[in-house]
Model the fold of this input.
Amino acid sequence: MKNLIIMLSAALLISCNGKNEQSKMKSEEKKEIDIQAELKSIEETRNAFQLAIKENRFGDLRQYGTEDVKSLTPDCGVWEPFKRLSENPVGKFHYDSLVMHPKETIIVSDSIAYDFGTSSTYYTNEEGEAIELTATFLAILKKDKKDGKWKLHREVANTRDLD
Done:
């Protein structure tokens, strides 16, 4: 009987140690997300994107989106002339700037986040007038595995106000 109790005690100890090792390995696998650092990184990407537009570096814009980025922006109402002119730029048309006003940025995981807010698009029309267009947007961001930067993956924008 003593041998049976000793064997059961040994088996129990071995079993508990195995579970502790598994728990330790699982917790080491989970990375703690530094939310503030990720929010700062998203803000840096957003600011760099806005600066590229302001400086007319439109060729640089692709680096701020994933390879399969999809973006649906307004194309009706006051947005119609902008869309038409931006697709076939002639005359004095000029895309002046884009200013994003995020209201909510949520880090979902270490590689997915979303950004929700409003934006103002500024352009100069054919008559040389400065025009402001507003929109509400919802953007899904993905963190690039190669360079660790947040990039636009999907975006939907419309002309409705948040209020």
